[in-house]
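Below is our example:
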Amino acid sequence: MFVLPLRRAAAALCLAVVAGVAGCGGGAEVDVVVVAPPPAPIAGLDLVLTRVGPEAVQVDWSDDPEAASFVVRRNGRTLAQVDALSLIDASVQFDGYYCYDVAGFDRAGELVSASDTACITIFP
């Protein structure tokens, strides 16, 4: 019996096991999937949005001692990468609807914490 590597997926290693089967006159091939353990759960960050000016939103989040930096996203796009626990977004406009989320990363660049998404509407 021998093992042939077929492909490597993100969380699984797929192998083909080829073995001679007695009385069958040949070999049989069986796919075997070895699944790696799931990644460690990430910590949750509390997220608070506050309107601080006519066209400005302050984004605050809780600390995670494992995080060396935080990425703040607005409407699914990166707004900033900071090492603070707060950010003022002065690029919002009246009648705009904005959704923010924050992710914390350790010094190796691994995701260690994340917030849920919070949204705010900027009324005139």
